[in-house]
Amino acid sequence: MLLREQLRVEEFTEKNEEFRRLASIDPLTEVYNRRHFDSLVSSLIGKQVDRRLQYGVAMIDVDQFKAYNDHYGHVKGDVCLKRIATAIFESVHPDVDIVARFGGEEFVVLLPSCSPQAALARAEEIREHVSGLALPHAGNPQQGIVTISVGVSAAGSGEDYDFENILNQADEALYHAKARGRDRCVLSPRSLPETPVTADA
Fold this sequence. Notes:
By secondary structure, the chain is of the alpha+beta class. Helix content is 48%, strand content 18%.
């Protein structure tokens, strides 16, 4: 009976761990969901003692995705998002970086220990990887394939550090990337004391 009870406890523990894992993962793309991303960021930054260390953030949006769904259907749209999520994950350092689905066709990547210029370079690697998939996209007449736009921001983790502000800056940079023709990475002007830096396709 003791052995049977021990097995039940172990099984219960394993199931609990699996439930927790599933609760943290976006079921479609199999990267972290927004809620778990927020939790990880809070924990990571809260433990950070070196205020000189910078964090980069890349906000990623699939270009003309509504047109993709309209043309190919939502089932293929889901497949497309899975392929993009995999490409993003393959482009980062999974033991350090954090990748999550932010919502809809948007993803976010946290890049610890990354200066603004380094974060921009890393974002460009992600953009090139997705472009390299060469997924056909009839609704994207300029490129003819699925592309992404990326907004990048970076800041240190000092006492006045507010991660929500960094996310907002990356989101603003993403808006600039879209406005400049999509399929490019733009660094937030607030990350450097100069005009926005762009990595054009």
